[in-house]
Amino acid sequence: MPRLFAISVAALLFVAIPTILVAQFGKFFFGSPAVPEVTVQQLQKLNAKQPEELYKINEQYLILDVRAPEEYQVSMIPGAITQEQFEKNQAEYRNRTIIVYCTIGYRSEKYAKKLIADGFIAQNFKGSILDWCRAGMPLVTMQGEQTNRVHTYSSEYKVPPNYTAVY
């Protein structure tokens, strides 16, 4: 009888301990829930009724560049603001959907998770600026002038022939 009791307790612990650990530390080990994503095609359609306004900041959404200064100083998606600009005026953007981008989408996903945790509505631009270039979309400098240069973070990432990679 004591042996049967010991086996039952061991089996219970075998099931209970992992369940408790996952409940307590699941986010740490398995990550938090997925961040909503937006594709380049969806981003292009946001203002399809007013194409001339496609790249301008509007009342519904904001395009947020979370790349490092040496990256966004090469080029940006038209209408985007930098993370530094956003953080200085966060309250101004509280009721907008924040579409976050970087080079490929990794850093932007991390920042979008932070924004969601802080109560913002945020989406990660899947593929980020590299997908933007693959779709043949325009880029601008910090001064708003059109450019074909894009910071790719490293030589590992390729851009279409009509763009110039900078790293």
UniProtKB/TrEMBL annotation:
Name by which UniProt lists this protein: Rhodanese domain-containing protein
Transmembrane segments: none
Domain of life: Bacteria
Protein source organism: Roseimaritima multifibrata
InterPro entries per UniProt: GlpE_sulfurtransferase, Rhodanese-like_dom, Rhodanese-like_dom_sf
Residue stretches making up the Rhodanese domain: 57-141
